[in-house]
Amino acid sequence: MGLTGIQIFKLLPKTNCKECGSPTCLAFAMALAGGKAELDKCPYVSDEAKATLSEASAPPIRGVKIGEKKIGEELVFYRHEKTFINPTAIACLVTDEMDDAEVDAKINNLNTVTFERVGLELSADLLAIRNASGDAGKFEALVKKALGATEKGLILMSDNVDALEAGAKAANGKGALLYAATADNCDKVAAIAKENGASVVAKGGSVEEVSNFTSKIVAAGVKDIVLDCGATDLKSMFYNDNQVRRAALKAKNRDLGFPTIDLICDMTDDPYKEAMLANVAIAKYAGIIVMSDIDKERMLPLFVQRLNIYTDPQRPMVMDEGIYEINKPGPDSPVIITTNFALTYFIVAAEIEASRVPTWLLIMDVEGMSVLTAWSAGKFVADAMAPFVVKSGIKDKISHNKIIIPGYVAQISGEFQEELGSEWEVVIGTREASDLPAFLKAL
Amino acid sequence: MAFSALTEKYSGKMGTLTIGSGDQAVTVGGQATMPFATFDGELPNKPLIAMEVYDVVDPEWPAAVVDPFKDVINDPIAWAKKNISEYGAKAICLQLASTDPNGENKDAAYAADLVGKMLAAIDVPLLVWGSGNVEKDAEVLAKVCEVNEGKNLLVGPAVEENYKKIAAACLGYGHAVVSQSPIDVNMAKQMNILISNLGLPMEKIIMEPSTGALGYGVEYSYSVMERISLAALAQNDDKMQAPIINDLGKECWKAREVKLTEEEEPSFGPDMEKRGVLWEATTGIDMLLSGSNLLIMRNPKAVKLVEECIDELMA
After folding, report:
1. For chain A, how big is the Rg over CA atoms in Å?
2. How far is CA B82 from CA A10, A154, B70, in A?
3. Using CA atoms, how far apart are residues A54 and A39, in angstroms rounded to an integer?
């Protein structure tokens, strides 16, 4: 959607005042076109130019915030081209026909099911509240209850515009997402959203139907839109999410330049199958997925999948440097040293855990490289490792003096021994992590 | 702006691979689109899942792994038959774990004989997988090929250090080979070139780009496979047009997220079977979404979940 430098230049004051930091307006225009400067740097640019330029530089898929969770802004189809930006939001469904105990249990799961991984807290993001009863009062009561029960962002779902309005008022200022505006009621729903600081789902039976009225919602003053193109199963969901992204990125279709929502909870009653649909949605372009429950066993693989898909492929995941205790080690337990590449850590830690041998695992910061890469880059080498071992304080925790190095760097053992001195005995471990359990048990 | 559906057309298409012989033969690959993009072009063959059986199992395997097979776990042939008759396996992968020199170190003649017995006992295509020991696999798999001539087995993995012996045996005795490379697009291509230079045609090669389980590098495999697929389709690179296989069962079931009990890690939850099944099924669907044509999987429920997705997406 970007304008060329010359097109931008025509909108600038052309005074060459240099206040933006560029030598000329043309140079500034070129920098803007290349994404290397911000328009705000120019103190004299007209409002009209600002509007034109911000329109032109807006991301092809709008970023939408629901509560604190942002979705959208994706720029590519494949994660190797450029990192996927805002991980798919995972929502949990409650309805005003569930009894209190069920609602409480689901909200409790949403609030508390979290996993720690590579220093990150993995959790679900949103609560979807459905007006299944059709009763506006019941719906409003549940929205109010939810506001007191969770900090997560809310999706308010009703076919009844009055109920939607009652819910939106109750959640005024919380950045809720209203579900949904249709071709028939989009003016009314947009007005409610605007009034209450909410965003809006545009819902239709197909991508085409939805594309026909999003511009009306924008015209009514609501720019934060999420699309539901009416998928009812895996195949239609896959098709819709693919086509919406293509329309936004390839055809630059502004009417479809929004993140999507998939009501996976309505596509199947089988919790396993629901998890599979969620996997596909996360990999293939969904902005929000709504699930029937946030239970530990399904969310662990799902959250990890989302983390893996949305990880920056150029930058490896890293662990913090330090001493990791596996299987409750004591003074006699062996000490293993390896690098802080998260994959190396996970694989080594899993094998040690499986061995059930209590072990101290020393993780050294080598900027997230694997053992061999770090060794050849001169980072996992004797004169760097020895000071780390001393500084780590591991010596105070053990009553022996052995330190095990990965078999792949057996060649450094002599030099490492020299650097560490006679206080330590360097032992060469296995090349493959999978051989560690046998190795540890034989120690 | 009016919506019109956009389609992607590519100049190239993925090659095919046929395994098994006669009525039992199954073909994978041949797609002219990225995974499951039925709206873009032709995907003539569904991805296939081979259910794996081991000739020796690790005593540390969690109950969720063992339970579906506990009556047959010490008999790979009975296990394979159960996979087919009870769990609907469309192909079997025999994992020759007992040939590992660090384990039971059984010899090549034993392996070749077991493969022969397996072939006689089952009516679906057979994959034969080595223990992963480079030198031993060369010896074992070459013998398996020789003794079971003409059965069009899929044999592997052949890696840079042992491909000559394994691929030559496949060429000589009428089998297909798995070309394995360490999570790198160029290495994958290089392996295909090396193997086809021996005389084995591309339609007898399938690539194993090294498979990371969910949480253990799945994203690396995922992106390498997407790049391989795009090279084959968009750049029409004929040395990248071998279908893709992922040996994922064994990777998934050793993850700590699968193995740890709730006592050991309370945040993971009590239902270990559910965790394990979904760990494997999630890895499986991720591999298919990034371009795989053939998965080697273990748990029957996980297989069924992934097969249901395949059927619906290809419908």
Report:
1. 27
2. 74, 48, 11
3. 9
CA atoms within 13 A on the CB side of B315: 12
CB contact under 8 A, A349 and B223: no
- Which of these, B44, B46, B94, B126, lies nearest to B249 by C-alpha position? B94
Distance between B61 CA and the closest CA of chain A, angstroms: 10
B116, containing H or E segment: helix B108-121
Q: Please give the structure tokens belonging to residue B124.
A: 């679906």
Reading chain A (443 residues) residue by residue, the pLDDT tens digits are 467 888 888 888 999 999 988 999 999 988 887 767 788 888 898 888 888 877 777 789 999 999 999 999 999 999 999 899 999 999 999 999 999 999 999 999 999 999 998 888 999 999 999 999 999 999 999 999 999 999 999 999 999 999 999 999 999 999 999 999 999 999 999 999 999 999 999 999 999 999 999 999 999 999 999 999 999 999 999 999 999 999 999 999 999 999 999 999 999 999 999 999 999 999 999 999 999 999 999 999 999 999 999 998 877 788 899 999 999 999 999 999 999 998 899 889 988 988 899 999 999 999 988 898 899 889 999 999 999 999 999 999 999 999 999 999 999 999 999 999 998 999 999 988 888 988 999 98
Q: What is the pTM of this model?
A: 0.90
pLDDT at A49: 83
Locate the chain B residue with the closest alpha carbon to A80: B223
Phi-psi region of A310 (alpha: psi -120 to 50; beta: other; left: phi over 0): alpha
Residue type, A46: S
Q: Which residue of B has its CA nearest to A240?
A: B5
Interface of B with A in 140-199 (CB under 8 A): none
- Residue with tokens 């008022």, as numbered in its chain: A169
Measured between alpha carbons, how far is residue B118 from residues B58, B141, B151 in Å? 21, 15, 12
At A359, phi and psi to the nearest 5? -145, 145
Nearest partner of B192 among B218, B228, B223, judged by Cα: B228
Q: What is the pLDDT of residues A282-315, one digit of tens each?
A: 999 999 999 999 999 999 999 999 999 999 887 7
- Give me the residue from A250, A272, A346 closest to B216, CB to CB: A346
Domains and CATH numbers, chain B: 16-314 (3.20.20.20)
Cβ separation B215–A233 shorter than 8 A: no
B43 interfacial to chain A (CB closer than 8 Å)? no
Residue B170 in 3-state DSSP? helix
Phi, psi for A30 (deg, rounded to 5) = -65, -40
Instruction: State the smallest CA–CA distance between residue B140 and chain A in angstroms.
Output: 21
Roughly how many angstroms between the first and final C-alpha of chain A, as a whole number?
63
Q: Tokens 């030198």 identify what position?
A: B135
